[in-house]
């Protein structure tokens, strides 16, 4: 009986760690305040065997949703593959302001994502997300 209890405790602990390193859910993308937009809220979820995210809401510098934002509903992150330990790579991120796509790597740790998007080996930009739910 003790053996089964130990296995159950181990499985529960492992599941909690896996969820803490999963991007599934809604995240706030921190960005510079441009064109009246303070930040975007994006929803991460499965897309085949990978992870993708779509824009679900744009929040203005006044703290209210911007109903006229034209990119709500569009996919911003595609084909991120879990590498283990909360690291995701192999996918892309779309920059709606420039209408360009960049290679993306990201690290998920609890309620934070640290990411780096690169146009090439030299030109990269780091950014972060905070989990909303």
UniProtKB/TrEMBL annotation:
Q: Which UniProt keywords apply?
A: Signal
Superkingdom of origin: Bacteria
Q: What is this protein called?
A: DUF2147 domain-containing protein
Question: Lineage of the source organism?
Answer: Bacteria, Pseudomonadati, Pseudomonadota, Alphaproteobacteria, Rhodobacterales
List, alphabetically, the InterPro entries matched: DUF2147 (IPR019223)
Q: Which PANTHER family match?
A: BLL6627 PROTEIN (PTHR36919:SF2), BLR1215 PROTEIN (PTHR36919)
Which species is the source of this protein? Parasulfitobacter algicola
N-terminal signal peptide = 1-20
**Gene3D superfamilies named in the record:** 2.40.128.520
Domain DUF2147, by residue range, is: 25-131
